[in-house]
């Protein structure tokens, strides 16, 4: 809905006139809770329906797109990147983390042909209201109480994934407040090495400008996304060397703006 090819629009250009933005956000406040709660309850009724995971995943993606539309936020990715993503297989997606908008932006931007999922805290996947929906969307439950158990769980889940499906990992571990990228954790590289998958780096620009740390109401504007060429781990290098090479590759694109 909001996804557009790259152009001359800057992140701070407001998408809609003020009256339209007010109307959209009023609709979000008044009707949004019913719409999004309805989507959360769909798996309780339809989880046994044939092909449920596929169509429910698309339903969630559409909901993310509608949320961004109601917030007057546009996502922007080149047509070439979209084609590459649609055809991508055998990868782990790695993305920098700037704000709470990042997951919604990724859901809105990545073509439906590219199936991906997220890792989530086990506690969320155990919650009765959320578990059916999370399981339906294919989220990977991770027990963060033990780092080694979490890595084993993630690695096994990636091994069992269809080749066309990818897990999304945030190598910085949390939202970064610095001007550039934060330090990368080694998890994505370790899993890629253990499973033989490539890493697909994706760089998000300007999401923190629309939703700065400590704020709860996003500004209107454009968030740009760049998909980089696949990153192949070097079996002759150390894990730390691969991590540094991956971070430098993403940082060069991020710092260009």
UniProtKB/TrEMBL annotation:
Keywords: Acyltransferase, Membrane, Transferase, Transmembrane, Transmembrane helix. Its EC number is 2.3.1.51. Residues 91-207 form the Phospholipid/glycerol acyltransferase domain. It is an enzyme of class 2 (transferase). One of its GO terms (molecular function) is 1-acylglycerol-3-phosphate O-acyltransferase activity. The keyword Transmembrane helix applies. The chain crosses the membrane at residues 27-46. GO terms for biological process: phosphatidic acid biosynthetic process. It comes from the Bacteria. InterPro entries: Plipid/glycerol_acylTrfase. Pathway: Lipid metabolism. This is 1-acyl-sn-glycerol-3-phosphate acyltransferase. It comes from Sulfitobacter noctilucicola.
């Amino acid at each position: 809905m909001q996804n557009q090819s790259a152009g001359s629009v800057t992140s701070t250009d407001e998408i809609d006139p003020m009256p339209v933005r007010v109307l959209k956000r009023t609709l979000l406040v008044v009707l949004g809770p019913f719409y999004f709660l309805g989507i959360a309850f769909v798996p309780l009724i339809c989880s046994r329906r044939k092909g449920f995971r596929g169509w429910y995943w698309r339903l969630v993606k559409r909901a993310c797109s509608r949320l961004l539309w109601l917030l007057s936020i546009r996502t922007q990715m080149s047509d070439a990147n979209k084609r590459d993503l649609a055809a991508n297989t055998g990868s782990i997606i790695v993305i920098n983390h700037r704000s709470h908008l990042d997951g919604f932006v990724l859901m809105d931007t990545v073509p439906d042909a590219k199936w991906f999922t997220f890792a989530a805290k086990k506690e969320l996947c155990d919650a009765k209201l959320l578990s059916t929906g999370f399981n339906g969307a294919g989220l990977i439950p991770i027990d963060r109480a033990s780092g080694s158990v979490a890595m084993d769980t993630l690695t096994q889940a990636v091994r069992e994934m269809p080749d066309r499906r990818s897990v999304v990992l945030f190598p910085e571990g949390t939202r970064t407040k610095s001007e550039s990228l934060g330090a990368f954790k080694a998890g994505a590289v370790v899993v890629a090495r253990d499973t033989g998958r490539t890493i697909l780096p994706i760089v998000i620009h300007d999401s923190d400008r629309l939703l700065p740390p400590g704020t709860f109401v996003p500004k209107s504007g454009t968030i740009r996304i760049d998909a980089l060429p696949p990153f192949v781990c070097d079996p002759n290098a150390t894990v730390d060397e691969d991590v540094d090479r991956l971070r430098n590759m993403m940082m060069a694109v991020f710092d260009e703006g």
